[in-house]
Backbone:
């Protein structure tokens, strides 16, 4: 995924892998055999997912996406809606996780890793209600449905919501809704045990600090005392220390205690994770 993001070309990625295999650098710290094994593994992934890599390269090269900060919140929300309405029509799996390379099996494994993390944290249970900010195609809601009392999801993309409703059509405790993206005003105070965002906060950050702050404020409102707020990836620009400082500042302002700060616990995704707990 990272190589595709840098090159926007599946062919360039294949050439880079081939060239690296013939021009391995000498490194005293890493045995050549280990480097060759890693290159063989990367080459196998690229070959297995050739079609998906080509599709993602075309998506990246299309110019539809942009990392530029929005001039206004409204502009940022409109951009996000357009981007994901378009992206999900190209590939459901890649639209929510480029690192899936468009493969449903890879996305399912990545989703399972997130569910397992939540189970390790002890934040799931049949008596609990959970809310995802930016639910996308509903993959998390479908996975969490058997493990919670109610799985709620919101998204600014109507196309995403259509896919989520189809994916979760047999899950009676799943509720997904299109939103304008400005707040969580459709939900009552102290309604949820867990509010979480999987790779959606970067688009709040891109839309402006006011929108980020509003979502911290709203998460604090809709969470029960000692409820959990999980942010999986905060921003695409800046470093981990900068992201952690921003989250600590918002946490202090809105009554959260930071429990997990910037961990990278997943095998399939390099997303950084923060766990915050609402104070009583």
Residues:
């Amino acid at each position: 995924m990272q190589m595709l993001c840098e090159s926007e070309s599946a062919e360039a990625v294949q050439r880079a892998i081939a060239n690296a295999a013939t021009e391995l650098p000498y490194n005293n710290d890493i045995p050549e055999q280990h480097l060759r094994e890693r290159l063989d593994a990367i080459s196998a992934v690229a070959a297995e997912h050739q079609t998906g890599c080509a599709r993602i390269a075309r998506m990246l090269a299309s110019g539809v996406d942009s990392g530029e900060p929005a001039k206004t919140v409204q502009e940022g929300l409109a951009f996000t809606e357009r981007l994901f309405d378009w992206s999900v029509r190209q590939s459901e799996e890649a639209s929510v996780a480029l690192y899936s390379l468009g493969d449903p099996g890879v996305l399912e494994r990545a989703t399972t890793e997130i569910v397992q993390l939540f189970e390790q944290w002890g934040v799931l249970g049949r008596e609990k209600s959970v809310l995802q900010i930016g639910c996308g195609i509903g993959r998390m809601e479908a996975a969490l449905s058997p493990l919670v009392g109610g799985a709620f999801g919101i998204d600014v993309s109507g196309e995403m919501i259509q896919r989520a409703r189809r994916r979760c059509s047999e899950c009676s405790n799943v509720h997904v809704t299109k939103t304008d993206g400005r707040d969580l005003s459709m939900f009552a105070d102290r309604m949820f045990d867990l509010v979480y965002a999987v790779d959606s906060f970067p688009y709040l950050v891109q839309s402006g600090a006011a929108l980020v702050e509003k979502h911290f404020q709203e998460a604090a409102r809709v969470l029960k005392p000692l409820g959990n707020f999980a942010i999986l990836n905060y921003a695409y620009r800046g470093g981990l220390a900068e992201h952690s400082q921003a989250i600590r500042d918002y946490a202090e302002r809105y009554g959260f205690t930071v429990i997990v700060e910037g961990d990278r616990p997943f095998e399939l995704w390099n997303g950084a994770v923060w766990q915050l707990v609402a104070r009583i």
